[in-house]
Amino acid sequence: MSPEAASETLADLGELGLVTKILSQINAAKISGIGVEVPAGDDAAVISTEGSSLALSVDMYAEGKHFRTDWSTGIEIGRRCAAASMADVCAMGAQPAGVLLAIGMPGSTTSHWAGEFLAGFMEEADSAGAVVLGGDVSDCENIVISVTAIGHLLSGAALARSGAGAGDTVGICGRSGMAAAGLRVLQRGLRSPRVLVDAFRVPNIDYSAGARAAKSGATSMIDISDGLVADLEHIARGSGVCIELDTKKIAVPEELVSTAAAFGVDPMGWILAGGDDHAIVATFPPKKRMPRGFTAIGKVAPAPVGAVLIDGVAYADAFEQVPGFRHFSS
Amino acid sequence: MSPEAASETLADLGELGLVTKILSQINAAKISGIGVEVPAGDDAAVISTEGSSLALSVDMYAEGKHFRTDWSTGIEIGRRCAAASMADVCAMGAQPAGVLLAIGMPGSTTSHWAGEFLAGFMEEADSAGAVVLGGDVSDCENIVISVTAIGHLLSGAALARSGAGAGDTVGICGRSGMAAAGLRVLQRGLRSPRVLVDAFRVPNIDYSAGARAAKSGATSMIDISDGLVADLEHIARGSGVCIELDTKKIAVPEELVSTAAAFGVDPMGWILAGGDDHAIVATFPPKKRMPRGFTAIGKVAPAPVGAVLIDGVAYADAFEQVPGFRHFSS
Known about the structure:
Chain A is α+β, with helices and mostly antiparallel strands. The first copy, chain A, has 2 domains: 57-153, CATH 3.30.1330.10; 169-318, Phosphoribosyl-aminoimidazole Synthetase, Chain A, domain 2 (Alpha-Beta Complex), CATH 3.90.650. Chain A is 33% helix and 25% strand. Chain A has helices spanning 10-25, 74-90, 111-127, 178-187, 194-201, 209-215, 228-239, 254-263, 267-273, 315-318, and strands at 30-31, 34-38, 45-49, 52-62, 95-105, 131-139, 144-153, 169-173, 220-223, 242-245, 280-284, 295-301, 308-310, 313-314. In chain A, strands 1-2-3-4-7-5-6 form a 7-stranded mixed β-sheet, covered by helices on one side. A 7-stranded mixed β-sheet of chain A has the order 9-11-8-12-10-13-14. In chain A, α4 packs across α5. Chains A and B meet through α1, β3, β4, β5 and α3 of A and α1, β3, β4, β5 and α3 of B.
């Protein structure tokens, strides 16, 4: 590290800068009996153990940053943390199989809240078919939750972000923009429309969608945590292609239309830039039938490489909005 | 939960109370292609995937509680977090194979510190043969680190805390009491003896000891994180036996003797009650030769069940000291 960088803070570097720095230091290796099929950097790493493959991923959620206890109940926060983490292994084509939970809480946290959180966490894990394999508790100034998800790759090969090819169809399973709209509703001090607020509080995930897509021959896949465009950019860059979205094919739920009108914004902004819904987006070979639950919303083009076009226009030009969100911003 | 418990806090309940509550809610199950051989509650859970078994464990470390940035460098904290987590999968008889890291830090954290932490973390993982399989970063009020460790069970069966039998020999691989003594030194504002302070900063772990013990036919195993007696009590209770320690067989390093004398305490107190050294303790069948690195320090007796005796005396009577330490104490 150069001397002039010694005072650089994480707020300067940003989350992406830090993640890039970390990934550049990691080397995947072949180790005792375990093969690393997909190293850290995708939705989840994939390891194989004598013919059977597992996807593994970790996520951290901090009070005030990812959730607020006055906006969501303990049950909802527990469900959401489990859901968001398990979505990552689904996005590799895996079926959730296990979760490990580490939670830091202040000593003033009530046992009631902790019990509710755990009940929600286990309820969501159970609904996905995942067993709680371990946990740790610690005391912390604020509530901090870390969830490791493990998924079983039933169909063999993992679906990384790098396999999309020109001509592929882009399909989505699940909703996009609902959680972002719900967050805006809560930020304005409102509690309805309930369907949007609920979408923010607990994502509604089809935990078999990733495995179905893998079985159907999908070429690449990701779950939408930072926003549809932001996450499709990962596929565009990882695969060296361009993703062309056709907004005419994207259904806009009535609640989004009416709430966006009340807020004086375009609902498509929430759909394209809003995160936290954890819909699964995948690319499928041309003429291949998409599995149940997936809807076509665009296609893969050869160029411009790394770009996501909205009805043929670069995203930044189509909307004056920054996709995803930046951690460590001061 | 009963209504009168609604205001109960984690400080009232304590860490053990919370963990017990969590474990009572978890049911291990047989799921799609993955069998849970050892559920949550031991050092690590063990899953099998078509004949090959993996041990998994998660731990959380909070600034001010588990480490202090003015007592340890970023490199040392990174190494210690990786080491303590990997020790748990070793204690199941596994060889560390992978780690996942989630870290929360305030935006004011310097990139330099974060870089040092990561370098230390990866150095320790590498020394154990483990690949960094994933990570997440978040911003938090204080530094919070969560590490998931994955180990490969080369010899097949996992070593839980429940297999010790009367007549077995108790063996230890690694040192005990050094880290606790180093912590007391730092708490007094001192920086030496260096060997004790270093022991607190980074545990010195033989990552193959657990796998060697498993291969040698050990009947139960645990790593010392809360203290030799406190952790042996887990084996005594889990196996329904009594552990009899013979202090004449426990080597007391010269640095412990001299520092304890200067502090006016018995060095055996640190050895028996001090945590964080992550030595591996295992029980071996009578007349079975212990593997390289293990020293006999006692034996397993049929009764009193759940007790650890020190030279024939109950621990609480032998030392006026509470083993382990209690989180969430206010």
